[in-house]
Amino acid sequence: MNSEQPQQEQKPKKKSRKWFWIAGGFILLIIIIAAAGGGSEENKNTNVISATNQVEEVNTAAENTNQEAESPTNESVEEEQQQTEAITFVFQEPSKFQKDSAERALAEFVEAWKNQEWSSMKEYTQLTWLNGKDDPAAELEATYGFKTLKGFEITNVNEVSDVTTDITFTVQYEVVTDQVSKKQITARVIKETDAYTPSEDGQWGVNPISTFSEKDVN
């Protein structure tokens, strides 16, 4: 099942030049009034009215400029939509894989990680790893709980033996909000009937320690 988690990059707003224009308008008004000081009263009034009209025109132009700077263009909106559509997370569900297979055990393990169901997650871990642990669910939570899982996809399966399979997969997760990391991990999945007892008659389980090594994926 594929799920999309859109992320939109916030574009910095252009700085408003409104106050620059207003300040310039008032300076212009002062200069014109000063220049009119030597004329008749009628001329003074005419000059003041003219200067006031010019200031109003400047302020109107400033308001229009500010609105244009803050309003997104069709091009910027289209670009953000394209970026949103480009960000998708593939998550392979356990039902995609055959029952009683190493891949199915890993998929169940990872889905429990995604859902933060630590008690369920331990059911798909290697029996040898579980042996002697007082609270394996709490240990799994401490290891994986701070990573919010978004995507999971198996990319390679290497059957080492009838009871050992190395599975390479990619995951996408958040540690910091809105910052998704993409990693490649190779998990060792082992079939056992009991701790330290590999057997074809056993059950597949993921060795959590094998998942600690992660490689960045571009």
> What do the pLDDT scores average to?
80
CATH hierarchy, class of the largest domain: Alpha Beta
Give me the CATH architecture of the largest domain, please.
Answer: Roll
Runs with pLDDT <50, length 5+?
A: 1-14
Class from secondary-structure proportions: alpha+beta
Query: Tally of extended strands?
Result: 8
Reported by name, the CATH topology of the largest domain is: Nuclear Transport Factor 2, Chain: A
Major sheet characteristics:
6 strands, antiparallel
Number of helices: 7
Overall domain count: 2
From the spread of the alpha carbons, the general shape counts as: elongated
What series of H and E elements makes up the topology? EHHHEHHHHEEEEEE
End-to-end distance: 22 Å
Strand content: 25-35%
Q: Helical proportion?
A: 40-55%
What radius of gyration results from the CA coordinates?
33 Å
Give a brief rundown of this model.
This protein has helices at 18-35, 41-70, 74-86, 102-115, 118-122, 127-130, 136-144; strands spanning 2-3, 89-90, 148-161, 164-176, 179-194, 197-198, 203-206, 214-216. With 218 residues, the protein is an alpha+beta fold.
